[in-house]
Amino acid sequence: MRGIVFIIEAVIAGLLLLSFIALIPSLMFKQPTLENPGWQLLQGLDSQGRLRNWTVAEDPIGLNAQIDIPYWNHSVQICNQTACVGSVPNATQLLTSVRFVAGEHNYSPHIVRLFLWK
Asked: In 10 A of CB 36, how many CB atoms?
């Protein structure tokens, strides 16, 4: 009788393990949806190599000049480990896109925040 109980426990444990393994892909990080134009824009600037230059220079005005999103107002904020440069808009409904930049030739992490509002 004890052998049957152990077999049933092993089958249940196997089913739990298989169901967990089957759920792992759905729990992994997914790319943001294409509904976020700010995320697409930051990704595009990063793939062109232009985002890193403006971010490392901590120039939100220059980066803001690179952005052209029709029908959206926008503002850029660049943060390093100690402070942030750029403005946060005083709007009630914001769409915020964030991109992390590790640095240029050495590790100097920065966060780029793109605020969009209508």
From this structure: 16
Q: What is the phi/psi pair of residue 88, to 5°?
A: -100, 125
Q: Kindly list the domain boundaries of the chain, sorted by start residue.
A: 1-30, 37-117
Report yes or no: 97 and 36 within 8 Å, Cβ to Cβ: yes
- Phi and psi at residue 36, in whole multiples of 5°? -100, 100
Q: What are phi and psi of 8, to 5 degrees?
A: -65, -40
**Span 44-98, pLDDT tens digits:** 898 888 898 889 889 999 998 888 888 889 999 999 989 999 988 998 888 899 9
Contacts of 28 (CB under 8 A, 6+ apart): none
